[in-house]
Amino acid sequence: MPLPVASSTLTRRPSSKTSPSSDRLLAISASPHSVLRPENTHPMASAPHADQVTPEPESGDTAAPAKRPRAPPIITEVEIRTEFAHHDGAVSRINNGTFGCCPASVLASRSRWQRLFLSQLDAFYFCSLQPGLARSRAAVALAVGAGVDPSEVSLVDNATTAAAIVMQHVAWSFAEGRFSRGDAVLMLHYTYSSVKKSIHAYAARAGATVVEVPLPFPVASPSAVAAEFRAALAVAKDGGRRAVRLAVIDHITSMPSVLIPVKELVAICREEGVDKVFVDAAHAIGQVPIDVRDIGADFYTSNLHKWFFCPSRGLPPHPQGRPHRLAAPPPRRVQRSAWIGVRDYSAQLVVPDAVDFMARFEGGIEGISRRNHDKVVEMGMMLAEAWGTFLGAPPEMCGSMAMIGLPGCLGIDSDEDAMRVRDMLRNDFKVEVPIFHNSRGVEGKEMDKDAKGDEVTGYVRISHQVYNVREEYEVLRDAVNKLVLDGFTCAKLRPSGKCGTADLLLLGLLPKPYASITLHEG
C-alpha cells in the first residue's frame, strides 16, 4: 500500500539562472524584502486587533506588517508581574522549558481572534485568516535570520508534526526506490522521544537503518559532541558501503538540556555527503540567536510556545530542500502544510503580538535571551555550590536552561525515581522543576561524583524566564538541602519490594559498569 503523503514543507533550491539575490536566499522565492521592513515600521509588527479585518493580499502569501508610530516604553517589573499574574504565585515555577509561558496581553489578543472567528465564521475564513497567518509568517521569518522569506515558513501544530512531515518524505523516497533499503538515518541519542518515534514509524519501517549518536553527559565541550558525531557518522556510513540519507540534529536537547554546536554538525554532514539535515530546534527560538541561513540545514523547526511567548500550537518548520517530488510553489505549499479546516487558529495568529510584547524589553528578544542565559547560569552555579555538585554542561553550552547535579545520596536510580522526586518537590515544596536520571556513563570513565564522593545520577533542569526571581531558586535549594539533612533516599518512595539500580549492583545482579556509551544501530 502506498505511504500517505503529508503536506510538504520543502522548497526548491534556486537554479544557476536565478538572480544573485535569489541565490542568497537558497529558496525559490525572490520577493523583495522591503515589503517586510517598510520605512518607519516596527520590523516585526503586530497582527491587527480582531475588529480590524484586513483584505487578503493579491499574492495570497505575504502581507505588509501594520505600522507602529514609535517604540514602546521599556516594561517595568510591576508590568511583568501583571502580565503573568495568571501564574500560581504559590509555586516556584522554574520550568519554562516544558510548556513555556504566555503573557496576558497575548492571551487577550488570542481571545479577540477567537471572538472574531465566532462572530462571523465565513468572513473570518475568507477575509481575515490568511492575511493574519501571513503576518505571523513574516514575523517568524524575521526572527530566524536575515534573508528568510515568509514563503519559506509554514505554521503547524508542533515539532512532532514537522518531524512527521519530513519523515514521510524520507519514507516515500524509500518506497519509490530513490533510497536503497539499509540506507542510514542518523540521530542523537537524546533526540526527543516523539521525534524518535516518528523516525522509527516512517523511516525505519520503510527500510532505513537508524544509527544513534551517543553523547557524553555531563558534557565538557562542543568539540566532545562533534567528536562523537563524527564517530557515529562513520558507523552509519559503514566504510562507504551505506548512504546516509538524513541526519536529525537537535539545536538544544530537551533532557538533558545541552546547546549543541549545530552549525558545526551540519558542516560535518555536508563534508561527509549526508543527503539532508533536519534540525529539531523545539527549544531554540527565543532562547538563542538563530540564523537558519548560516546554520545551513535543509529543514529547521522550532516551537513558538516555549520561549517566544506564544500560546501552545504555533510552530514554524523552515525548509531549504533540494528539488524533489514533494516540492510545490511557496503559496500552495505554505497553505497546504498549515490548512486543517475548521479549527482554532488563534495561537498562530498572535505571533506578531508576542513580538510586540518582547519589544517592550530592553534589547527585544535578544536582550531577553541574553539576560535569561546569564541568570540561569548564575542560579545554576548557586545551586551547585549549595549541593556540592556541578553544572551538567559548561555555561557556553547552556541557553536559558541549565542542568545541575543533585546530591548523590538521594539515590536517583531510574526514570521512575526521577519522576517521584519531581512529584514530591511539587506537592511538598511547591517547586516545579524536571528531574533527569543519568543512566549513561562514559566508557572508560567513572560517573562524576559530588563533594561527598557519591556518584551523581540525578540532575535538575532549571529554566529562567522574564517572570522568574531569585527566591524561587532558593526554595529549590533549601528543599533539596532539607531532603539531604533528613536522610531522604529514593528507596523510601519506591513501591514495596522494588529495587533501584544501586540496589541491584549491591546484590551483584547487574554488571559494573552498568551503563556505557556504545555506538549502535537501531
Automatic annotation (TrEMBL):
> Where are the annotated segments for Disordered?
1-72
Task: Please state every residue range assigned to the domain named Aminotransferase class V.
Answer: 136-309
Q: Which residues form a coiled coil?
A: none
InterPro entries linked to this entry: Aminotrans_V_dom (IPR000192), PyrdxlP-dep_Trfase (IPR015424), PyrdxlP-dep_Trfase_major (IPR015421)
Give any Pfam family that matches.
Aminotran_5
Composition bias, kind Low complexity: at what positions?
7-26
User: What keywords were assigned to this record?
Assistant: Pyridoxal phosphate
Q: What is this protein called?
A: Aminotransferase class V domain-containing protein
